[in-house]
């Protein structure tokens, strides 16, 4: 985890609120690649990707893994650092315009991730999880639930770290690429917030956790 970095830092906030930068970070969380590789994967202009990669590197969100000669030039290969966790206190201090941009960028990434996983059978494991739980809370209940989400995020990170340690053993099996998306938000008046808790049909499912801290809370 990047220490002492959260959305209250204007530069970090700006980086995480830009949709293309969020997409670049997501791409480089999964592999080491050059700006050219990332541009091709995202179907984005190389010039724009290169600019944003340099910005993310300058902010410490990407690190330069190595360089290599390619057709008379030097190619730079990057990989994402672990993302900064946005604490509740930091989120409360963020300007509304930054919150909106950050949430939009994160939800765009989450939607793509979930849709690709669904098409590829990513929810077929027996203990995967997909649920929706509308509810009505008072202020105290909201604070209690928010605190549980913060603790769950820390648990996800600890479980992922322990998994990585086991996977590093020569005799351990292949890792399971996974993602956990945690959300707590106010619904609009017509969103059925007063309805009883509703869960996905069939056996209750829980998605394997991955220590991935997205910007949107």
Tell me what you see in this structure.
There is one protein chain. With 217 residues, this protein is mostly helical. Helices cover 46% and strands 10% of the residues. The protein has 7 helices and 4 strands; from the N terminus they run ααααββααβαβ. It has helices spanning 10-16, 19-30, 35-42, 46-58, 88-93, 96-119, 139-167, and strands at 62-70, 73-80, 131-132, 198-199. The radius of gyration is 19 Å and the shape is globular. The relative contact order is 0.15.
Helices and strands, with pairings:
Blueprint (H helix, E strand, L loop, with lengths): L9 H7 L2 H12 L4 H8 L3 H13 L3 E9 L2 E8 L7 H6 L2 H24 L11 E2 L6 H29 L30 E2 L18
Antiparallel strand pairs: 1-2, 3-4
Helix pairs in contact: 2-4, 2-6, 3-4
Distance between the termini: 17 Å
The biggest beta sheet reads:
2 strands, antiparallel
The poorly predicted ranges are 1-5, 191-217
The whole-angstrom Rg is 19 Å
Q: Helix count, per DSSP? A: 7
Assembly state here?
Answer: single chain
**Strand sequence of the main sheet, in spatial order?**
1-2
Estimate percent helicity.
Answer: 40-55%
Based on DSSP secondary structure assignment, what is the total number of beta strands? 4
């Amino acid at each position: 985890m990047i220490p002492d970095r959260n959305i209250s830092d204007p530069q970090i906030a700006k980086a995480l609120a830009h949709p293309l930068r969020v997409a670049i970070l997501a791409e480089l969380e999964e592999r080491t690649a050059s700006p050219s590789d990332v541009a091709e994967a995202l179907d984005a202009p190389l010039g724009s990707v290169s600019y944003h990669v340099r910005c993310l590197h300058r902010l410490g969100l990407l690190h330069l893994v190595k360089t290599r000669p390619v057709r008379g030039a030097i190619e730079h290969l990057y990989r994402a650092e672990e993302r900064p966790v946005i604490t509740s206190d930091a989120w409360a201090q963020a300007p509304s315009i930054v919150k909106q941009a950050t949430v939009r960028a994160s939800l765009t990434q989450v939607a793509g991730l979930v849709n690709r996983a669904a098409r590829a059978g990513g929810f077929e494991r027996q203990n995967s999880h997909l649920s929706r739980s509308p509810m009505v809370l008072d202020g105290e209940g909201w604070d209690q639930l928010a605190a549980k989400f913060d603790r769950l995020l820390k648990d996800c990170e600890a479980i992922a770290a322990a998994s990585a340690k086991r996977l590093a053993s020569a005799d351990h099996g292949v890792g399971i690429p996974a993602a956990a998306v945690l959300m707590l938000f106010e619904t609009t008046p017509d969103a059925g917030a007063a309805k009883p808790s509703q869960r996905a049909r069939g056996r209750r499912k829980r998605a394997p956790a991955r220590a991935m801290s997205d910007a949107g809370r």
